[in-house]
Task: structure prediction
Amino acid sequence: MSRTIPFEGDDAPKSAPAPLPPRRRSDGERGSEEERWVLGAGRAGPTELGRSGLWELGVPPGWWRATSLDLLTAGAHRISSLWAERDPKGVLLRALWLGEAGTRGILVRTLLDAPPPRVESLLPELSPALYFEREIAEMFGVEFHASPDPRPLLLHYRHALPPMIAAPDRAPPLDERSRFDFAPVEGEGVYEVPVGPVHAGIIEPGHFRFQVVGEEILDLEVRLGYTHKGTERLFEGLDPRRGTQLASSISGDHSVAGAVAYATAVEHALGHPPLERPTEMRRGALLEVERMAHLLGDIAGIVLDVGYAAGAAQANVLRNEAYTVLEELTGSRLGRGAVAVGGLARPLPREGLRPLAARADAVAKATVALLRHLEERPSVMDRVRGTGVVSKEVARALELVGPVARASGLDRDVRRDRPYGAYRGTELRVTHGSTGDVEARLRVKVDEVVEASRLFGTFLRRSGEAPAVPPAEPPRDGPGFGVGLVEAPRGELLFAVSLDLERGKLSRVHVREPSYLNWPAIEYAVHGNILPDFPLCNKSLNLSYSGFDR
Amino acid sequence: MSAPRASSSASTSTSTSSPPRSIKGRPEGGLGQVRGELVTRPYPEGPRPRFPAAMRTPVHDAARCDASGACARACPSEAIEVQARGQGEGAVFRLDYGRCTFCRACVDACPTQALSATDLFELAVRDRRDLVLEHRAGSRAPTAPTPPTSPSASAMLTEVQERVQRLFRGSLSVRAVDAGSCNGCEVEVGALTWPSYDLERLGIHFVASPRHADALLVTGPVTVNMRLALEKTFRATPDPKLVIAVGACGISGGPFRGSPEVLNGAGSSVPVNVWVPGCPPRPEALLYGLWLALGRLEQRLERGEVPAARSGSGQKA
Ligand code: SF4
Ligand code: SF4
Result:
């Protein structure tokens, strides 16, 4: 074994190999010991994980923090997700780190086998770790040493045991609600505005606590978890082929993306042969038309919240048209039940694909026309310009994903950076902005509708004829663990699946919805804005509550 | 196919090309012009629409059923039960539209084509039991009828319904409450306000506060964490009030049924007057449910089936 981590496999996509950069050394620490994990110190070094294009690396718990921070600072990797899994010997922690486009992701794992499970927190250096660690703490009872915020995240009630360790056998009674303290803000003229969980519109539940002076928002803290359904636990023990419905119900407004990410993870874990090209193309077509519908909803929301109802109505007409196209293809307006492990649940219609492409194209043209129309209306543009700014620095620190990240100038898109399925070998135009305000998000989303309609047409044309229905018995010779990364309309969506290959059952499914990374952005976006602009900031970020809470 | 290029790249703001001409202030290809036709669909006032692309509602033919149980095994929602009975009695096939997520897996799995997929969408009912179909496999005769609704309960239901119809007829203010949905139902509930469905043309509108509401539209399985908020919302709604449970989740917990973090539907926390199946129910199915709540349409489904007498228009007033 060489002394550097092979970040690149021979068959991995081009791009310069990224040798592990000089390691960060602190306070006289010398290299020999630190390098031990690289060499494995008697353990296995990084190993290739099936076909998922990942390296897997096991470290002892004591190295968890150092390894992670090395990847972050010296290795220029960003964390995609951090999750836990029950293990006969304790609790297994896993983190997926992603480097530059085209490089392999690194999956770091550590086994906390000495009870009680305990490990050093990755805070404050790694901001996104805050939610991950709070969730793992409440769900698995892992103690994150020196965590600055040990409050629960999703659970509002006290449980006798962490629910992912031992499933509760009853719903906790109302008087067992746990305490939750919002960060106080003090000073003359500061007052607090509590909002939610039941909101005024037709939207999901969550609680916002504003600290306001006059009309200006000093601070906002979000409390979520209201839609927590224990979904990850529900996957356990299922036949992997039966999990697509739950995967589509993480965030129903991107049902297709959820099902594709899940199916991809399961296919890797099972050792499924690569899908036939036409099948990949069909999945790609569904993903893109879903993206159009979803983003048009965001556009409608922004326009509605600046008070321009006619513009919003137009965007919603277009959105409905995109859903109708999806229904023509799948039988469901939201594309539910369309994707199966190993392919699609049933073949797409063979007839009438060309008119569908033309309809998507018309929607894209009308979306651009709508943007031009809005540009002529100062009352609209004044409201969106400079509102709800998420700076590039903030976006990077929080590791935002999707159109929100791109509007703030982060050029990242899974479809291009880690192409999967239909996107392999497909040219893709990724737009990004720089101002990070509502206007930038509006423009990025309009651009993405246009690009999505182009891809939709391309994929439909290439989808040809092929058996779309998956084989009855999936293979079982894979590594038993797989990851699916998909660019959902909200951004990078991750499913990680562990299988009990012998019994053919799911043993752990972890999902990290893009909103999980993006939610903190709202607390930054509203700073210095006035309270009435909050809905506008909110709609432009379009965060999924259910995707966060699951 | 050529795609238009959106010239904006967010940072660099507007395009250099001149904007397309607006017709009377409307963007080109504006309202009603996407496909050159009116966008608002006439349902429920006009004829019942068909959805040939969306054949997703399973319908069971007892005569063809050989009780193989393949459907029950394929169903991801535990909506089908095939139960062997004593000797000579034949197996019982049970389908609960309140749990069904309309995925069609059972139809694909059925070896004898006893299950077929239709575009039946007017599935909303006032009595939860009308969502459950029970057949004796292989027989044309109906199963022994389930005992009718207990007189006191049904009298109460009728009373509420009558009062509500008398008071609200023609107009209804609805407060949507998400009790932990996956947000799929929110898309379709929200769609009712789009020009395509334009709920307000029917005199129904969504209000921001439960205090202004006549009806609550509850989506989601009712999570443990939303239980209190739902109960408070219900209490804040003035009497008389209607509760409409939406989607597989709102009726039975849907895909999340059985999780210790959910209470398996709105009925766990508040009294429900109308149940609207779907995952999610399409906008027309929601419109049907709302009109049913107002008593402006007749219920089509009875014990899980559309009786022959009701296969017509079903329109009342
Ligand atoms: S269509 Fe309904 S009954 Fe049939 S398999 Fe799907 S959920 Fe089950
Ligand atoms: S019924 Fe289906 S679409 Fe509606 S909330 Fe439940 S899972 Fe989502």
